[in-house]
């Protein structure tokens, strides 16, 4: 099903305007989230260059990025040189007509351009300024360069990812940037509600390392009260058992049966119901203490069956289980299709592109993918001539001087 043909309304944020100044991923992903739910997102890019995301991504088709169409969907593109006085003046004119501004420059950059919170809020007191950075807008590290990888490391994620016998690994996606963007979006919508009550905008300060830190469960508290430092544990969480990847006759299956009642159902499926009352396995703590032994016991059973047989048995007994998917399995899965988790989006460069749909799903005002990623400056005339009403002569002059 083609998203554009689905006839969705724009979404719950329809009528709100976002200026996106961010580059690469952290700022633009926040813009994507807001755009997916109906906000008008005007992406501001340097003339002649554009966002580096336009050329990023490991695999390219026809020399074009396949990452850009995802993060730039539902956006308009204008070019504007913020280093020039006239460019700064144009941005302020746009701020006067907008609800949000997203930026993920190094702290101090906007102030250097005369575009800090003091100046922007004077133009539009209702503005919500969303700022994403490595270390936040304050503190001794705030002015340091801080990419997502650094935030992942300092936020605690890198140390606990990977096999205990190897150096810390990274997750195979830019998770630090995406988490900071997601927290920024939560902050933006929280600030929107506050503005609805008070009429005033505010600054949302989302730091990558703090977004990662907030996902680290009880890691800090465990050290604070028990002196315990989490280590890398590979495919398992220590003391959470059985929950692992197990070999079958023809592949691998993930089974998560660490809750008491669920483990009882797994024991029944295995034909060994007595395991549920065995003192070594009868409680969460006991199973955790016997984790290695219990995993070996479960795998001896799964290796007697095919993957399909294991999954069928787990479904019959109400035990959470599944396969480890790559893109081909996602595209072939009937549940993904039924929920339209992946949709087909018409695109001028690629004909059609399949990509993840908007999440979460809203029953009354769902988000949607309404437009493909824009060409650089594609919406210059719409924004400068129609929205800001510059006039053709002035617009042409600014183009000649490469302000836009």
List keywords for this structure.
single chain, 404 residues, alpha/beta, formyl-coa transferase, domain 3, 2 domains, three-stranded antiparallel sheet, elongated
Give an overview in words:
This protein has 404 residues and is an alpha/beta fold. The protein folds into two domains: 3-215 and 335-400, Crotonobetainyl-coa:carnitine coa-transferase, domain 1 (Rossmann fold, 3-Layer(aba) Sandwich); 243-325, formyl-coa transferase, domain 3 (2-Layer Sandwich). Helices cover 38% and strands 14% of the residues. The protein has helices spanning 26-36, 68-71, 85-95, 109-112, 117-123, 148-154, 157-160, 175-198, 208-213, 219-226, 260-269, 284-289, 291-302, 307-317, 327-332, 334-338, 380-387, 392-400; strands at residues 17-20, 40-45, 60-61, 64-65, 75-79, 100-103, 128-133, 203-207, 243-247, 252-256, 321-322, 342-347, 351-356. Helix 1 packs across helix 8 (175-198) and helix 11 (260-269) packs across helix 14. The longest helix is centred in the middle third of the chain and has 24 residues, at 175-198. It is elongated, with a radius of gyration of 25 Å.
Brief sketch in words of this structure:
This protein has 18 helices and 13 strands.
């Amino acid at each position: 099903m083609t998203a554009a043909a689905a006839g969705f309304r724009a979404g719950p944020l329809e009528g709100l305007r976002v200026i996106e100044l961010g580059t690469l991923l952290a700022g633009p992903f926040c813009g994507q989230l807001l755009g997916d739910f109906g906000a008008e997102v005007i992406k501001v890019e340097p003339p002649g260059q554009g966002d580096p995301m336009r050329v990023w991504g490991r695999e390219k088709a026809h020399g074009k990025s396949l990452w850009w169409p995802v993060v730039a969907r539902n956006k308009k593109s204008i070019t504007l040189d913020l280093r020039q006085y006239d460019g700064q003046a144009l941005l302020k004119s746009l701020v006067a007509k907008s609800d949000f501004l997203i930026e993920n420059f190094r702290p101090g950059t906007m102030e250097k351009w005369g575009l800090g919170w003091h100046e922007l809020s004077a133009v539009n007191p209702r503005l919500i300024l969303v700022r994403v950075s490595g270390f936040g807008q304050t503190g001794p590290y705030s002015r340091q360069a801080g990419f997502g990888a650094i935030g992942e490391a300092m936020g605690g994620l890198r140390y606990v990812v990977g096999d205990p016998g190897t150096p810390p690994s990274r997750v195979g996606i830019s998770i630090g940037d995406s988490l900071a963007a997601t927290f920024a979006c939560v902050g933006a919508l929280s600030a929107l509600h506050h503005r609805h009550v008070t009429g005033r905008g505010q600054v949302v300060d989302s730091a990558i390392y703090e977004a990662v830190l907030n996902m680290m469960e009880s890691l800090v508290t465990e050290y604070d009260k028990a002196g315990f430092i989490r280590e890398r544990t590979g495919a398992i969480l220590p003391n959470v058992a059985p929950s692992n990847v197990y070999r079958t006759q023809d592949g691998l299956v993930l089974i998560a049966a660490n809750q008491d009642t669920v483990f009882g159902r797994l024991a029944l499926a295995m034909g060994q119901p007595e395991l549920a009352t065995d003192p070594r396995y009868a409680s969460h703590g006991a199973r955790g203490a016997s984790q290695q032994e219990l995993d070996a016991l479960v795998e001896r059973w799964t290796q007697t069956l095919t993957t399909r047989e294991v999954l069928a048995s787990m479904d019959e007994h109400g035990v959470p289980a599944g396969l480890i998917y790559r893109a081909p399995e996602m595209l072939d899965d009937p549940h993904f299709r039924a929920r339209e988790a992946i949709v087909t989006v018409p695109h001028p460069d690629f004909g059609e592109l399949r990509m993840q749909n908007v999440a979460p799903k809203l029953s009354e005002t769902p988000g949607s993918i309404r437009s493909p990623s824009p060409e650089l400056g594609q919406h210059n005339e719409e924004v400068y001539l129609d929205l800001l009403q510059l006039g053709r002569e002035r617009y042409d002059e600014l183009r000649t001087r490469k302000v836009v």
